[in-house]
Amino acid sequence: MSETTSTNEQKKPPLNGRRALPSNISNEEENEVPEMEPFGLIPRGFNPKDYLRVVDIHMFKDPHETNKQQHHTDKYYNPKLIVRRGQPFQIQIDFNRPYKPETDQFWLEYLIGRYPQQNKGTYIPVLVGDVLKPGEWGAKITHKENNSIRLSIMSSATCIIGKFRLYVAVWTPFGILRTHRDSATDTYILFNPWCQQDAVYLDDEKEREEYVLNDVGIVFHGNINDIKLRSWSYGQFEENILDACLFLMDKAELELSGRGNPIKICRVASAVINSRDDNGVIAGSWDNTYTYGVAPSAWTGSVDILLEYYSSKQPVRYGQCWVFAGVFNTFLRCLGIPARLITNYSSAHDNNANLQLDFFLDDEGKVDTKITKDSVWNYHCWNEAWMTRPDLPVGFGGWQVVDATPQETSDGMYRCGPSSVQAIKHGHVCFQFDAPFVYAEVNSDIVYSRREKNGAQVIEKIDTNHIGQLIVTKEVGGDGMMDITEEYKFQEGSEEERLALETAVMYGVKKQTPQDTAYQPQRDVDMDFQVQKVVLGSDFKVTITFRNKSGNYYTAATHLSGNIVFYTGVTKNEFKKHSFSAKLEPFSSSAFDVVVKSSEYLSDLMDQASFHFFVTARISETGKILAMQKATVLEIPTLRIKTQGGMVVGKEMSVTVEFTNPLKQTLENVTLRLEGPGLLRTMKKEFRQIPTNSTLIWEVKFIPKRPGLRKLIASLNCDALRHVYGELDVQIQKL
Predict the structure, then answer these.
(1) Alpha carbons 683 and 681: distance in angstroms, whole number
(2) How far is CA 223 from CA 40, 49, 227, 378, 632, in A?
(3) Are 464 and 445 in contact (CB under 8 A)?
(4) 232: closest CA among 321, 307, 149, 128?
(5) Which of 203, 485, 654, 703 has its CA at a distance of 20 to 30 angstroms from the CA of residue 470?
(6) Active site residue 321
(7) Out of 159, 321, 334, 416, which one is annotated catalytic?
(8) Which residues pair with 491 in a beta bridge?
(9) The CATH number of the domain where 549 resides is what?
């Protein structure tokens, strides 16, 4: 006996002098609940069987039954009851004899975590009454037949999100009798965008279908001049994903009592989805070496990542911004928070939060990479989550920016948001959380400056339009692109835009004013350049055009610098340098071509086949400098997906994935992935070599589980070629 007590004592968590109970931060842990809770001494003749006794509880938890249908949870691949808060659901209790309301008294108890307390919302007694009040816990009997009763139960619209244990308690004169612990009656309670009292209520049914129930989405990438898109499988309804998402809140040590609040959930999730400082879900890597892990471009969806983390409890390697955002979107939609994935083209990563990105030029007008620290990301993905913001003044609810990509710390951790999109648009960056950082990502100016021999800094050019030129998300109900730039900023150059900027500066966003730095822009010559769009592996040309609007003859000493860059705008190396002298006739335009051969760039190419060109020109006669930069992305070949035979639920079907190698080199150690939510779990296949111009064909057979319009998503990955995708919509028929 003594041994058992000592093990029990070891299990008890250490108490401290500050709180009577340890913190309740795990949905997984449980407490012992007594089946008989006596009021005092029990008389000798007491027999529990003389009283009302629960024989069985029916949860109506199958996908086709009323609860999951009405609560929009029929798609979850999970055998237990899943309901949304603030909306009634049905259960049936079978007793050992007919229920007599005059003498029998029973109630329900919902418990979560190891230390349930009524005032924390972790122990919820539900009494049976005559009416259900909307958005408050209660139960009423809707039907009585023989020994059975049917109950309609209403949960609170502010209830904790998680997995609750259910007990039925019966009152007797000598004590309370309870049902024994039965995991089959466990009930998941989720956010409810269909309920007006819920903080995440969204009033448009088409938007709810897109932002909560759609399990595939689109990631827009590439760059502003060449927008590319790929599908991403969110898979929020797949097996074990709901449990994995609840585990993330345990991992983040969010108190159970705070888990009814979408603001708190978003904030802790934005930290736990990256592995910096808390061993979270995904380890980021931006250096093009992905040994001992999966290249970010190879993932086709969130399910593999979340399930690997749920089982191993170790960060999954590797992710970049769209992977963090894809997994975050799965987490939010799975719990019932409306969410969408956003892409900001030409996104500022400003190291000193002063609303300007500084590019320093040397004497010749070339960019000095040693002292230029700020970078422009070709694109950056984050998420928006929909919720009210009772912690902010009226008008700042709705879409909130949340970002799990680790860029800067916020309150000591790598996390970002939730930050009100409306507050960012109007410059009210004083409102929590992280609004100045997001404001800078979409509103910074690029300043080109040069240091003179005497130490004076001369600003050569200020580009106010380059950053945050386009902000997009997937359209509702289709695969097209929706431009939401207007939600983040007023029209460039408008009075409202200036006012928003002044407001942001007033609230502490640093904006340097060029007082001691003379700035007189070059007015009489315009310069622009265009990069020819080509397929990876081809030669292409860059065309630089000058427009001389003056009556003078000018000579422009022009430098072109071509760099292979990470999509974050950080340079890997310079692969092309070209200088020439351009003669500019009065009142005329002239164009100059610079040819780039494939041999110059192929050996160093990276993940995103992304180049960045700087063109600077110095007008010899005036000493003025013109500067411009542009990113460009090569066309990457795609995968072709085809289906054979009938496509019917429960019957085997066949899919082939084809790819032709367009490069002038053999591809080695190639990995193909194929997945489709509701169709098949991720399949992988390795190929040792694909010679130049040869085609590989991979056939996969599987049995579709669910009817309806589904999407197959494939990716190909190897060191020489990444971001190769293919997709296909398939219509699966019912049997």
Answers:
(1) 6
(2) 74, 73, 5, 5, 7
(3) yes
(4) 321
(5) 203
(6) yes
(7) 321
(8) none
(9) 2.60.40.10
Of 240, 437, 233, which is closest to residue 327 (Cα–Cα)?
233
Separation between Cα atoms, residue 321 and residue 325, nearest integer Å: 6
In this prediction, residue 2 has a pLDDT band, given cuts at 50, 70 and 90, of very low
Q: In this structure, are 573 and 685 located in the same domain?
A: no
Let me know: does 300 contact 445? Beta carbons within 8 Å: no
> What number is the average pLDDT over the span 416-437?
90
Residue 112: exposure state from Cβ atoms within 10 A (0-12, 13-18, ≥19): buried
Q: Phi, psi (5° rounding) for residue 603?
A: -65, -25
Cβ 344 vs Cβ 380: under 8 Å = yes
- Residue bearing tokens 């009040």: 133
| 35 is an annotated ligand-binding site residue | no
Identify residue 612 by its one-letter amino acid code.
H
Which token pair is 297? 């471009």
Cβ contacts of residue 339 below 8 Å, gap of 6+? 211, 212, 328, 329, 332, 333, 383, 384, 385, 386
Which residue's entry shows tokens 């008294």?
Answer: 105
- Domain range for 129 is 36-190
175 and 239 belong to one structural domain: no
Place of tokens 């965008």: 193
Tell me which range, 174-178, 372-376, 600-604, is most confidently predicted by mean pLDDT.
174-178
Q: What are the start-end ranges of the E strands in 60-215?
A: 81-84, 89-95, 106-111, 123-129, 138-145, 148-154, 162-172, 175-178, 187-190
Report the C-alpha dihedral over residues 61, 63, 67, 73, rounded to 10 degrees. 110
Annotated binding-site residue? 445: yes
Catalytic one among 72, 221, 349, 380?
A: 380
**Nearest CA among 161, 160, 140 for reference residue 150:** 140
Give the orientation angle of helix 241-251 with respect to helix 262-272, to 10 degrees.
90
Quote the pLDDT of residue 20: 67
Note the pTM of the prediction, 2 decimals.
0.89
Answer yes or no: are the C-beta atoms of 605 and 721 closer than 8 Å: no
Domain total in the chain: 4
- Annotated catalytic residue within 374, 403, 434, 607: 403
What average pLDDT is seen over the chain? 90
Residues 291 and 418 in one domain: yes
Peptide bond connecting 418 to the previous residue in cis, omega within 30 degrees of 0: yes
Same-domain status, 542 and 476:
no
Residue 551 has pLDDT above 60, yes or no: yes
